[in-house]
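Researcher: Next sequence.
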Amino acid sequence: MEPKNILVALLIVIAIAFHAFWFVTAKQRRHRRPGDTKPKGVALLAAFIANFFDTLGIGSYATTASMSKLWNIMPDEKIPGTLNVGYVMATVVQAVIFMTIIEVDFLTLVSIIGAAVLGAFLGAGVVSGLNRRQVQIGMGTALLVASGLMVLSMSGQGPAPGVALGLSGTKLGIAVGISMVLGALMMLGIGFYGPCLIMISLLGMDPRVSYPIMMGACAFLMPSGSIQFVRKESYDLRTAIAFLIAGPLAVLIAAPLVDRIPLLYLRFLVLAVVLYTAVRMLTSAAQEKAAARQTA
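Model: Next structure:
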């Protein structure tokens, strides 16, 4: 069996194990605190839209956070955990598809994935313990960063796309270091896709290999990081269930369309919404700080 196929099989096993852990933990949680677990229609819609865009390479984190804020899907402080827990399966489906059909150097793929997983595991322990205002500030800042990365990508700035299918030596070391940081930041809501695509282009790789790399990295790191959120119950259960249902469906519909849909107008729309949401997040944090001072 080829090494890449072994990696795909391992990913599927990890995904099954994570969802079994989530199911058992959620069942225990319901025994302690009975409540409705029926997913909301608006959450299903948000997950479908976000993961459709995600499969096209736009990313799901910024778009989901934006829709959550606009449509009041869940509390702000629950957004990072719910995104990570609920989108595990959708990301695994993406990774299996693109790791199978796009060629990439195996050592480069494994190295970047391993670094991202480690960063996510360490980063989730910090993010899952933040309070509401801290998450608002972090998410607002993250969305502004994501907006900047979108603008950079849309403007075509940076070096011309490379043709390499892998990295070695110093460049591989740089990619590993950056991926560890991105894995940690992903737990705060900065999507991995945009930064990964830019990193790959700057290091002289063929932009097409970003799909198996970034989707594979996210698929492996999200179960690792999400364990922290599940243990600390730092996520919204009803919304996460909705994400689990609608996310993979959107991926399967969008995957065949990757090379067919013009994305420029979609990117402009997403950029506008993300910027608006970032401002709202930071404004909410400032308002809560002012309210806390008045009551002190």
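Model: Residues 56 and 260 are 10 Å apart (CA to CA). The chain has one domain: 3-295.
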